[in-house]
Amino acid sequence: MKRRKVLAGAAALPIGMALAGCGGRFNSADNQIQLLDRSIPLRLVRAFQRQKPPDTQVSFETRKTFLELFEQLRAWQAAPAANRTVLNLPLPGNRTASTQQAELLSLGDYWLRPAIQEKLIQPLPINALQAWTDLAPAWQELMRRDRNGFLSPQGEVWGLPYRWGYLQIIYNRRHFEALGWQPQGWADLLRPELRGRMALPDHPRIVLGLALKLLGASANATDPQAVAGLAQRLTALHQQTRFYSSDHYLEPLVLEDISLAVGWSTDILPVAQEYRQFEALMPEEGTLLTADLWVKPAPLPDTAPSQELSAVTQAWLQYCLDPQAALELTLYSLGASPLFWNQEAAALPEALRNRPLLTLTPETQQRSEFLLPLAEPVQRIYDDLWLQMRSALV
């Protein structure tokens, strides 16, 4: 039997399109930036190193997941002053925490509220950043939060977005050719031919948000139990699902154990590009959005607070939203720069005009939502609905 190629995450990307590899370092310097692996093309880092402010140094270190980055933030705050240089906190995958606190760190927008609540990050000094004023109002609104992590027009700015993606479908085209139809949108997840043949993310807000979108409601509904038909829709999705996974749903698709999976475009698009039997579907009826951000870690315990950024990290923030860098980031990381938000195809750079899966249309963007923080009582309702669904007999 011929051995089939199996991917690990999005490992099919050429090495030049990723930074250093899992937990890797690029250069070494006093100013450190920690980022999500494969979210910044290596070519951009090299270009920045050539044009950064004179007599400055910066190092880049990657982490495989946002969980690792979030735990790194916790580790810095938990380390006693006398032990900071020998910190060796276990992280997922038998990794260890960095001994040097970064000046900037990647975080997903969903992690912003807990990072603020736990006082792991501090507001960004955006007054000197032209990049901030270049962002569309929707991005500025998403980044302004109160001290509890909720959106607030009067809140401080807690992050600077550099890349975004969305929830989408990936499916094996050959399987559906045999069925005589191809998926067109979210409603097709409920077709009987897919029972036990698909994977959904292992995350209550994502699955419930998807169910709410199927019913024409907001993924951030504050009273989900009042949405007619939600329990039945959740049960139907659960019956269709072979397994739930947020990290390992693409390998079974390659092995043909499932026919379809739902996940983030930043994971899916590289795989769809590598495996020609797969098709990535843009859900025109609207979807869920996600963003990668730069945040500033809170001062270490027993140290004087400072909101200032070094010249080189300030230059890096500006560089990430430079139009040319933003275009290369979009093309090579397969996650869109926030500069390409709410733009018709004709207004996009020529290289993106025939790549609708990268940027979505303004109409689809308007029908889509970020998963916003919920009040604790509302979050408990979502969690209870998730547990009820997962425990249901099918």
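the 2nd protein, sequnce then structure:
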Amino acid sequence: MRLDDESESSNIEDARGQSGGFRLPGGGGGLSFGGGRMGCGTIVALGVIALVLGINPLTLIGGLSGGGGIPLPTQQIGQPAPAAAPGARSETDRFVAKVLRTTEETWGKLFPEQVGKPYREPRLVLFSGGVRSGCGAAEAAMGPFYCPADQKVYLDTSFFDDLNRRFGAPGDFAAAYVIGHEVGHHIQTILGISDQVRDAQARASETQSNALQVRMELQADCLAGVWAKDNQDILDPGDIDEALTAAAAIGDDTLQKAAQGVVVPESFTHGSSAQRQRWFRRGFDTGTIAGCDTFGGGRL
């Protein structure tokens, strides 16, 4: 991905230096994802799936268990620190800021054209170790996430190393796809899709709630594909393959098989590797929000 001539987003908050463990506030702290009890096996599975791109995984745990989430070592967290001075920022920081800026430019253009409304940009919070968001608290091990409550993307850039070494998905565009996916969740929020899905999940069984969540995640993958198409002029040969490799590496079936040796489709919350690849590719091929209707029925 050729970013040398790209500008950096100013919508970056630096919350690093606030690392440590957290205790999720009572009640799970954020989104409701249906009822039902959750056993240890489900907690382990969610811990693995939480490494996948998506919303704050602690809200999944808190919502499914119907209570206070998983207690973690507590540490008081203050307000986010100001962004680091430009001269103190690392190459990775600048990469993140530039990729975020490409999403702002893409959706600042496409959203009014395709939806008829101005685009409201999200902020991206860089953190290390752990962070408290509007959706509750999270640790870096749970991966990047988007919080609809405060409309912010949360990212510990060490996840990029995990994507490369642990999941076998190297490359700068694999990392950029992570950001594009999370911004896709922001698109869903400002379109009102997130609220509709959470309302439906609150009335659904655990299996039905999971199925709805899969459609949410696949739509975010598709929207990342739309963003990629709009930035073709700065992509290198092989960049789309990097994104597809990353999508496959973090499919629910791939993660479950690696973690527990078996695949349980009814517990999927993000979609299979093939589905994630297919919907990213669909977004890239169509270049439209309308082309990303994962809720319209039919084959996922």
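The first helix runs from residue 40 to 49. The two ends are 29 Å apart (CA to CA).
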